[in-house]
Amino acid sequence: MQTYSVKIDAFEGPLDLLLHLIQQAEVDIYDIPVAQITEQYMAYIHSMQELALDYASEYLVMASTLLAMKSRMLLPIEEAEDMEADEMLEDEDDPRRELAEKLAAYKQYKEAAGTLETFESERMEKFSKAPSQVDDYIQHEDEQAVPDVGGITVYDMIQAYQNAKNRLKKANEPPAVVKPDTFTVEAQIEDVREKVKTSTGPVSFTNWLAARPPAELVASFLAVLELMKGGEILCRQDGNFSDIWMYRKEEGAS
Questions:
Q1: What keywords is this UniProt entry annotated with (predicted)?
Q2: Domain 147-252 has CATH 1.10.10.580
Q3: Of 211, 246, 251, which Cα lies nearest the Cα of 226?
Q4: What are the pLDDT digits (tens) for 7-38?
């Protein structure tokens, strides 16, 4: 009798070992050569018994399943009345079917786990730095005036809007009673126009939002974006992560 020598790394369970043997044989999961795989599997079980591994019992259960499957496939299949019925009978009675489905599902999860492990390894090689103030390294021509760094984007406006919302959450105010009043963007546009028109200087975007109830914040924020888009007001920032200031166009123009 031929002696089998199987050299294997650590397997996570019977399905992991079976999948390894099937991939090594380069066969389809749904067309398992039961006799060949069972022989290789039993050789591995023999090596486990010699090593007296604690978890050998679960492998023995799978070994019993494979042996029963091998015996069942040796039994002759009764002839069907026609070819179509014969193919249907063969498919439904194939003892490998249930095991193949388990192996296919296990393979899918194992590949997904491998992908996640790759993502984790790649992320571990990257280091993130929290935002920091850089105002001390910037020289301004006029320290008394609000410097114009230009380049205000929608993302800067959204960040300032989120900061204002976070300040409101931290205030721990009691729950407000929902009122039927509605706040429209059009009404807030008029409010912004009046605010920058009557103000003697630039208007703080953060302070202007903070003075408003939560239900009004969204409409107020959209109103500022509309006025910026239409060129009626300008928004400037004095440094990274600092407040945004609103001007009338003629007032903020250089």
A1: Cell cycle, Cell division, Chromosome partition, Cytoplasm
A2: yes
A3: 246
A4: 444 566 777 777 777 877 777 777 777 778 88
